[in-house]
Specification:
Helix 1 packs across helix 2, helix 1 runs parallel beside helix 7 and helix 4 runs parallel beside helix 5. The strands form six sheets. Strands 3-2-4-5-7-6-12 form a seven-stranded mixed beta sheet, sandwiched between helices. The protein has a six-stranded parallel beta sheet with strand order 16-15-17-18-20-19, with helices on both faces. Strands 9-11-10-13-14 form a five-stranded mixed beta sheet, with helices on both faces. With 648 residues, it is α/β, with parallel strands linked by helices. The model has no long low-confidence stretch (mean pLDDT 92). The two termini are 42 Å apart.
């Protein structure tokens, strides 16, 4: 039995934040869970899926976040509690559906969406604050500050959802999703699931519109705001809001989420608990105005600490403006004053600096000044570790073929990039070939626009890259649009047999479900041909053929073409224990070193981690610990000094 199916109320277990979120959804009695992978939320669905069969839960990787949300809504319409997980980028994708779902309301089964933001953009193409989406869409929003609270809050969010007939957001951040701490388990619901039934059937004697079809916008929008006011009343007494500090603090700190720990630590470290109070809000939209107003009236100075945008800061200041006659003049500190950054992660040290400045106390020095100097010196001996693709990564082969093909074509062609491991196409590992990068599927979308500029004298070849999972997620509409509108570009589908960047989750092209059960393989080649595109399939490790095919496709110059670059991710090969194909070594007699004239093409430009430069001999060598024996490097050495031998 997995931890997620363990019914031992009161037991204490060590859980990652994402595990706690999953456990909270299970404790709430969900029947359906759907998600699309994206760090820092990727682990939530697999944890639920691990207990899905035992607890009679349908758990799925949907092809994108909008579909995941629609799947969950369908379950809710039939009276089944449902749960969705995504990262901040995914909230944008789902918003199109949610803003309409809000006008109809959900079904009798509660519905919760967990969105994990990524302050600092550590695993993301942006640093978006999803809380603004909840405010924009008029959805209840909760923010946990620990793994324990994440579990309990997700469970409570279903009660909020059902109380007002609205989808409810729970917003995490990277440090909550990937923290690990002790969590006290709650009770699991009985295994006998509620029977699903869709009640809105057409009746010829009473042919009224279904409640799941939005009525007049004015009426629906008015009702939505009435629901939010009901949520506000629930939030006023929420156990997830708490205050620690004196009755009338010199400074009131208002915070939420992961920043709660930073603020508490900063106050303790400076020993200012007698003059500084911390109001931690777990219910951040709609704002519990009576609760917040009470604490605003206890002080004249307020500091806001949050990640990333000044969301709480703006909401509270709006409230303060309406209470001006009662509260009098207040001084606010935060992103607006420059005491907190509206970007990147916060930290205890940053909050300490803000507190010492506002309170006018002696600057905090955690260690002797010599320690900082010693650390600075020590960092000089740490080797530089630039971003790179894995040894044997098929994307390196693809971008090398692209680089070579564009040079042979000679018409200043370029690549529209996309989101995935191949995002490194914009940097050294991809030989700086990608020139644009935005949202998933946008590489092909942007190429659509560029490919229809012939009337303006545009004649540069346009390539777009997308991954196999991204193809199903967001690129299909762009491909259909390209074929339909006769846009002139070549789409490269980098099929490495997995959603590799976020943890090797399956997708419609892999033949496996989230639970590990077999699934039909959706043939992307057949789809592309059916749409009407000219399709070729290449192995990127066959550099000669891949390059030749690219050149030929670019020369074709009419309509939308597709090249499927198909080669399994090396890490997936390792997981499946697929043996290496070649033994690779450098022939020292053939390697000319600096005299080669290639300017260290192998180690400086090609950059595979398995290739190294030996300063003593002045020649290239193979790092046998990292080399996976793919053999690609043998095709790029101008001196033919890199040798591959088939492994028997």
């Amino acid at each position: 039995m997995t931890t997620f199916a363990l019914n031992r109320p009161g037991a204490t277990v060590l859980l990652m934040g994402n595990e706690a979120v999953a456990r909270g959804a299970i404790e709430a009695g969900i029947g359906v869970a759907a998600a699309y992978p994206g760090s820092p939320s990727s682990e939530v669905l697999p944890f639920i899926a691990s207990a899905a069969k035992e607890l009679n839960i349908h758990a799925e990787w949907s092809v994108n976040e909008k579909l995941a949300t629609e799947v969950a809504a369908g379950a809710s319409f039939a009276g089944i509690r449902s749960f969705v997980a995504m990262k901040q980028n995914g909230a944008n994708v789902a918003a199109d559906f949610i803003i309409n779902l809000n006008m109809t309301g959900i079904g009798k089964g509660g519905m919760v969406v967990f969105v994990s933001d990524d302050p600092g953009g550590m695993t993301s193409s942006n640093e978006e604050d999803s809380r603004t989406i909840a405010k924009w869409l008029d959805n209840p929003l909760l923010e946990p500050s620990s793994a324990q609270e994440a579990k309990d809050m997700v469970r409570w969010a279903f009660e909020v959802s059902e109380a007002v007939n609205l989808l409810t957001f729970v917003r995490g951040v990277t440090r909550i999703s990937y923290t690990k701490s002790n969590v006290v388990l709650g009770e699991l619901p009985e295994k006998t699931q509620k029977k699903a039934y869709f009640p809105e059937l057409w009746n010829m004697y009473n042919p009224t519109k279904s409640t799941f079809t939005a009525g007049p916008s004015l009426v629906a929008h008015k009702l939505l705001h009435e629901k939010l006011e009901k949520v506000r009343k629930l939030f006023e007494t929420s156990p997830f809001n708490r205050y620690v500090g004196p009755e009338n603090p010199e400074l009131l700190v208002i915070t939420s989420g992961a920043c709660t720990s930073y603020c508490t630590e900063a106050v303790d470290e400076l020993r200012v608990g007698g003059t500084v109070g911390v109001l931690k809000l777990g219910t951040t939209w709609p704002l519990p105005e009576k609760l917040v107003g009470k604490y605003l009236g206890s002080t004249k100075k307020i500091l806001f600490v949050e990640e990333t945008d000044p969301f709480l800061e703006q909401s509270v200041m709006e409230l303060a403006a309406s209470l001006l006659s009662t509260l009098g003049t207040l001084t606010f500190y935060g992103a607006r004053s420059g005491h907190v950054t509206p970007y990147d992660e916060q930290s205890t040290n940053l909050i300490i600096n803000s507190l010492t400045d506002i309170l006018g106390i002696t600057p905090y020095q955690p260690r002797d000044i010599t320690y900082a100097m010693e650390v600075k010196e020590a960092t000089k001996i740490v080797p530089n570790r630039p971003i790179n693709m894995c040894a044997g990564c098929p994307h390196r082969a693809t971008f090398w073929a692209i680089r070579k093909a564009l040079q042979l074509d000679g018409r200043n062609g370029f690549v529209c990039g996309d989101i995935g491991c191949y995002s490194l196409g914009f940097a050294a590992p991809g030989f700086f070939q990608a020139r644009t990068m935005h949202a998933m599927g946008s590489g092909a979308g942007v190429a659509n626009g560029l490919g229809n500029l012939k009337n303006f004298g545009f004649d540069q070849p346009v390539l777009a890259v997308t991954g196999d999972s991204t193809f199903f997620h967001a690129t299909l509409p762009a491909l259909v649009n390209g074929v339909y509108n006769r846009s002139n570009f070549t789409l490269l589908i980098l099929d490495n047999s997995a959603t590799a960047m976020t943890g090797f989750q399956p997708h419609p092209g892999t033949g496996e479900l989230a639970t590990g059960d077999p699934a039909p393989v959706v043939d992307m080649e057949a789809i592309c041909r059916a749409i009407g595109a000219h399709v070729e399939v290449c192995d990127p490790f066959d550099l000669e053929n891949a390059t030749k095919t690219l050149v030929s496709m670019m020369e074709e110059g009419t309509g939308t073409r597709v090249i499927i670059m198909r080669h399994m991710c090396q890490l997936l090969k390792d997981r499946r224990k697929i043996p290496r194909k070649y033994k690779i070594y450098v022939d020292p007699e053939k390697c000319r070193g600096d005299a080669c004239g290639c300017d260290r093409l192998c180690t400086r430009l090609f950059g595979c981690p398995g290739l190294m430069w030996d300063n003593e001999t002045g020649k290239a060598i193979i790092d046998e610990a990292l080399c996976v024996g793919c053999g690609l490097c043998t095709d790029i050495c101008p001196a033919n000094a890199i040798i591959r031998e088939e492994v028997i």
